[in-house]
Amino acid sequence: RPPLSIFLLLPPCLGNREHNNRIMGFLSLFIVNKSGGLIHHRPLGPNAPQIGTNEWLTIGSTFHSLHAIAAEASPLRLPGNKNPYGADDGIEEIHAGGLVLQCFQTRTGVKFVVTAEPGTPDMEYVLKEIYVLYTDCALKDPFYELEMPIRCELFTQAVDNLIERVEKNGPPRR
Amino acid sequence: MSKSTAAANGHSLWQKMPKANAELFALTYGTLVTELVRDYESTEDINEQLEKMGYSIGVRCVDEFLAKADQAGMVIPPCRAFAETAEVMAKTGFRMFLGVSAEVQMISDSSFSLLIYENPLSLFVELPSDPKWKDLKYSNLYCGILRGSLEQVNLRVECTFVKDVLQGDDVNEIRVDLKEVLVDGAGEEYQEE
After folding, report:
1. pTM for the full model?
2. Chain B contact for A62, CB < 8 A?
3. How does DSSP assign chain B, residue by residue?
4. pLDDT mean over A43-66
């Protein structure tokens, strides 16, 4: 079954950066918890839009609701609204004129969402790596409470390093 | 997922995990239990505290398990029956985090027993023969871990230690009963009437 994608017509943004002949441009990361609350947001590149904290919170909860509604509105309904991976079905990708948004829903209900300029490769790889970083840096932090905003220096540093590494070299070839 | 795939996955994930000194681990846990013994009067309370600690560990473990399995390219398909859940936990989960696998004995469709032959937590441990320690569940942390991790994937279970090597039995046995399959909240509000 093709991924649940939405194509929107939005004005294209200006120019794509190129680096080593790869079209770059991660924009932002945001993470939504099981109940729809935003627990993390971070700009991932220089073209990332400036979005205020309150706006981020709205984006987080709106996305959470839309994700659920999409599964209900989809012409192809899956049993229990669960996709074959085992996670809740919902929006996986949004393609717009100047933006690509990709969402990774974990089986524990956390959503990792990354936005990037169209043509940016390795978004799925980055999402999966961020999940691993979340488990290693945020979950293992004894002061981090589940479902609360992530304020772990180790996590933010690791995400920045990941993006830098992917932009320079791409994902490791298996 | 077949038993052998679960075991192979477990072994492979175990290889990738950073390791800690087994003795340090066992001794640290021992100190923790000793502290609890000092702080609490009854063995009931100690068991409860261990379970609660295990719960906070468990809720965090399952994401790590799923994320790292994904990263390693393993497919852990959604379990179609509670028996599959049991196998994955025993062969892959336990192996990944503790280096030892457990055996599963299904009791019914919604409950199973986990048999642990080698317990890394009870290395060097001997319980005093005083009858008041008869009810102490030294490794009750495991029960909490199982309960916490399954709750994150929407299965509400109850876990209890039924046999303990430290109490004289030949194997450690944890009984896991499925109480309820939880339904996520998000979709409900938007469902058609």
Report:
1. 0.88
2. no
3. --HHHHHHHHHHHHHHS----HHHHHHHHHHHHHHHHHH-SSHHHHHHHHHHHHHHHHHHHHHHHHHHHHHTT---PPPSSHHHHHHIIIIIIHHHHHS---EEEEEETTEEEEEESS-GGGTT----S-GGGTT--TTTHHHHHHHHHHHHTTEEEEEEEEE-GGGT-SSEEEEEEEEEE---SGGGGGS--
4. 94
B→A interface, C-beta within 8 Å: 59-60, 62-64, 66-68, 70-71, 73, 77-78, 152-153, 184-187, 189-192
pLDDT tens per residue across span A93-127: 999 998 999 999 999 999 999 999 998 988 999 99
Shortest distance, CA A60 to any CA of chain B (angstroms): 14
Between B62, B68, B78, which is nearest A108 by CB?
B62
By C-alpha distance, the chain B residue nearest A129 is B71
Tokens at A66, concatenated: 């839309």
Question: ipTM for the complex?
Answer: 0.89
Which two tokens mark A56? 């981020």
Q: Is the predicted pLDDT of residue A171 greater than 80, yes or no?
A: no
pLDDT tens digit string along B53-112?
999 999 999 999 999 999 998 888 888 899 999 999 999 999 999 999 899 999 999 999
Which of B169, B177, B182 is closest to B143 using CA atoms? Answer: B177
Chain A residues with beta carbon closer than 8 angstroms to that of B64: 135-136, 139-140
Could you read off the pLDDT of B1-24 as tens digits, one per residue?
677 888 999 999 999 999 999 999
